[in-house]
Amino acid sequence: MTAEEVKSEEGQQEITMEGEDLTLKKDGGVLKVIKKEGTGNETPMTGDKVSVHYVGTLLDGTKFDSSRDRDEHFTFDLGKGQVIKAWDLGVATMKIGEVCQLICSPEYAYGAAGSPPKIPPNSTLVFEVELFQFKGEDLSDKEDGGIIRRILTKGEGYTKPNEGATVEVSLEGEWQGKVFDRRELTFEVGDGVDLGIPKGIEKALQSMEKGEESIIKLSPSYGFGSEGSSQFNIPPGAELSYKVKLITFEKAKESWEMNTEEKLEQGPIVKEKGTQYFKEGKYRQAAQQYTKIISWLDHESGLSEQDEQKARALQLAAHLNLAACFIKIQDHVQALENCNKALELDDSNEKALFRRSEALFALKEFRDARDGFQKVVQLYPDNKAARVQVTACQRLLREQHEKDKRLYANMFSKFAEHDAKKEATEKGKEEKKPENGQPEEGSMELEQNP
Predict the structure, then answer these.
(1) Are strands 30-36 and 63-66 parallel, antiparallel or unpaired?
(2) What is the pLDDT of residue 400?
(3) Does the annotation count 64 as an active-site position?
(4) Whole-prediction pTM value?
(5) Residue 264 to residue 296: CA distance in whole angstroms
(6) Which member of 108, 110, 134, 373 is catalytic?
(7) Is the pLDDT assigned to residue 428 strictly greater than 70?
């Protein structure tokens, strides 16, 4: 604790230089005084999204900024350098509902440069801060709250694991407060499912730094899903919590880091890995391997004739196998897209033509599917499966035709019935119309007689 009064201009309150020193060096650079106690025991962690109100003044009491004047909370990610150092230190110590004063020396604020025109060079600043909310960082692609990270210990460096990186981790998984998995292991990112590691953890690892330890909360779709885990006796639809430490890792080479020779050398190895996944029924993991090959070779140019042949053969196989994966997981639009890519490489490829027609059939495009299967039969007469599918398409087209006929016949019948009723109504009105403007017997005019 330190205490020192700084005199302000006439009519403005004096600032007492006192409070808890929050700096690691204990150099008095950030002093905190609690004005109003918060609730609970939890404080924000590095990476949390925090929401505050603040009023910033110079030592002479001059206000230079205020979120309260704007009537809008200020939100930022804690510990990510999005605010001055004093804020990252100070807000990390606050509880929900707490109001505190932070006195920030220039080294922990805007330094020798200041922030003209409102903050002069080498200014010590005073902030009154109120914490309203904090929540963990959402790492899910759709930001649906499926993967929430709260950093216990910040890592070092700036690089992070990528798909295919070799990672060494320690992890502890909990469900309903009970630990079900505790171990240290080394594996490649993308292969974790074989070791009983949820895809949400693999996703989170790609955002972690070496030495980082975090709490990762997973919704069911990023955990063990609707099937649960028999390995760990976890029921379907379970929400999970993991404590994960990334001990060390070695990044896999990115496409731009590999030369053509490396890509052509690794391509068959990756393809075989994907094929093994496919045989085991792990279609999504298989698809990741085939996608890797395509990303490596899609933009290669200036290849020798021999290398060009190797690259095209690998790309063709990758697109064909991707189509097979997408058919298995019933993503027929993606299957169709990959078949079309394969046909750009080989316009009469039997598998590409057949799988394209399979995808069209599943999408109920029976006419195009039939034409595709017929082309397979024409080019490859021994393909019995294609002949069977031609017959199936023709049957479904006939059924669709008959259904349409009944639908339209019923529709036309209703139109005819409606027209007949309309004609009869109009004819009836014509027959009741009086001649020479005289009312007919039984008309409304007769109802006036007593």
Answers:
(1) unpaired
(2) 87
(3) yes
(4) 0.69
(5) 9
(6) 110
(7) no
